[in-house]
Amino acid sequence: MYILYEVADKIATITLNRPEVANVQNMQLLDELDAAWTRAAEDDDVAVIVVRAEGKHFSAGHDLNDRWPSPKEITLEWIYRAESRRYLEYTLRWRNTPKPSIAAVQGRIIAGGLMLCWPCDLIIASEDALFSDPVALMGIGGVEYHGHTWELGARKAKEILFTGRPVTAEEAEKTGMVNKVVPRDQLDAEARAMALQIAEMPSFGLRQAKRAVNQTLDVQGFYAAVQSVFDIHQTGHGNALSVSGYPILVKLDEMKEKIK
């Protein structure tokens, strides 16, 4: 099992549990994570959902070695179908879960790691958290779940995508991407304290408040933008398929080796 799940005091805690590989996401982990979200959403005893991770890093993104066939067997149709389900449908479902959710993140949050925390309503980060999305380095300009413009603002989003540099927890708090920054040893306690406070609020009021904010973003174009950028992302895969045996696999693996 790559996901741990527990409920206490009206809080469902969902834990990523692949710390030995920086919680990179294989298909099984994402399927288990979606099942945990669904379980929490359907449980009347759960008022708030907390997503956290074991180990040094929240998530270093996708485990390409697990989810991809050999380069000779990869087709754009295969990629589109696999990613549409696990990267687009799952994240939008988590984002629209009626119950409030909190992500507690630490260490590296790279590329696909962002799509595990950005769908949450609130984010608490440890002081050592670093957010990055080096997709341009891999020859891909779009992303599976494009929260960048909404989380960072247009110019900062371009800077991060153009350069691949990480965003510190302090900088993320200034942009509004992160609600609160705390010392690493206080991360879980702070997330739990916030969850307990929210859990005491009337459930219908919370549901409607979340719906109001999400629909405001959707009216501004969030939902349509995420879906259209997903298709832009697929053109990146198409380009990579035409270049020397899909070189992004090698580049991403080399990058992840440096953070273990």
UniProtKB/TrEMBL annotation:
SUPFAM superfamilies: ClpP/crotonase. Belongs to the enoyl-CoA hydratase/isomerase family. CDD domains: crotonase-like. It comes from Nocardia globerula. It comes from the Bacteria. Gene3D superfamilies: 2-enoyl-CoA Hydratase, Chain A, domain 1. This is Enoyl-CoA hydratase/carnithine racemase. InterPro entries: ClpP/crotonase-like_dom_sf, Enoyl-CoA_hydra/iso. One of its GO terms (molecular function) is catalytic activity. PANTHER family: ENOYL-COA HYDRATASE, IP11341P-RELATED.
